[in-house]
Amino acid sequence: MQERVTTRTEDYDLTCPITLRTFRDPVIAADGRTYEREAIARWIAEHGTSPFTRQPLNIKDLQPNYHMRNMTGRRGSSASSYYAVDESKVYQYPPTAPVYGEVPITKVSNNHRSGQCCSFRCQLGTILIVIILITSIICGLIIGFNLRKPVSTNKPKYSSSLTANSPTYCRTTCIRWQFYYDVLTVTVTKAGKYKFTSESNIDTYGYIYNSSFNPANPHLNLLAEDNDSGKKRQFQLKINLQPWETYVLVITTFIPNVRGSFSIDVSDPKFVNFHSTTTHRTPTKTTKRTTKKTTARTTKKTTARPSTTAPGSYYNYSSSLTSSSSKYCRRDKKCQESLDFYYEALQISVSMNGRYHFVSNGSMATYADIYNKTFDKLKPNQNLIHSIDDSSEENQFKLKVSLIAGNKYIMVVTTKRSNIMGKFSVTATGSGSVTFSSLPQSGIEIRN
């Protein structure tokens, strides 16, 4: 019984055994095999024999294989893909002969397609590996760069604020205005150039002094000053400092009567030490004292004693001249029928012998004299201590005087013009600590 031959296109190998490509113009040679016309013609021209049987072949004997051409057409273009083959090598070696002598019609092999898939996977895997390696290298560089950044440790960042209790002084020529300020003692352990930068929401102004700061003479010992070299209206002081020397950093404001918080950053912080020497105003204590001519009268006592007498320490006293204040005739004036100048008498004592500076701030033009032990308002030239007033044409006094520890002195604060009232403050600095206390306005005398 004859076996029925199937005609399904997927059951036939529709590729040329020489080119391994799908047939386009199939022909049958004398050896009974089907080839692509162009491929077998080239083979016969070069070899003259069958690639399978080695029997002689003639190009003229090639006959078209219409059946194979029809089968190729039925499969369609989807089966027409093939590998790009180097035909010079294909024609050099003959294809492997089949086991039997029949026409080589075999099942279609998908090995070349699986090879394509494998090649694609390999390429995709290689690309992924390369991407991972590049990403790892970039991350490593970023981490290494961050690790190489110097880590700021032990950075002394001083923070404080200017408040209503902060001391005030006259940063420039003052009439009515006053400037709040803070004082820091600065030492360094290594010589070099340092940078001090402020951070605040107020417009700050900075000064650096050598050894000490005198609010009564803010230009004395001044090394450097700055207003807006930093960002956002902040000062930035750049200065060369020497080890184990004492410097004073003064923080104030560009505009008078401004208060607010601030902080100070410094370069090379491990070589810099900060120490605050600011003495804020202390609350006043009220006591009652009875005299022969007056009933109970209140007096104010203000003593500013810092923990140390480091250079740059200062002491403040604040009060006001009112209609209840006593009046007298200033020693340098010729009063007519009445006493025309309001005044307040302050007792002063110091802890060390030396030179002291007293400077006033207030809403009025002030004037002052210093007396030894007693003051008589009817004899203002008696017991007067000679002092140097650097106020010149300014409206606040600036007294320089030598004082002895253990002695008692009286400072009389009055006005430059008659019948003037208002608030005032006195700031003192010098060799030691200074104590202020208000005295009764009649019968002024100090007994040791």
UniProtKB/TrEMBL annotation:
SUPFAM superfamilies given in the database record: RING/U-box (SSF57850)
Domain U-box, chain residue ranges per copy: 9-82
Membrane spanning residue stretches: 124-147
Keywords carried by this UniProt record: Membrane, Transmembrane, Transmembrane helix
CDD domains documented for this protein: RING-Ubox_WDSUB1-like
Region (Disordered): 277-311
Biased composition range(s): Basic residues: 282-303
Molecular function terms, GO-annotated: ubiquitin-protein transferase activity
GO biological process: protein ubiquitination
Pfam family, one: U-box
Matching PANTHER family: WD REPEAT, SAM AND U-BOX DOMAIN-CONTAINING PROTEIN 1
This protein's name: U-box domain-containing protein
Organism: Rotaria socialis
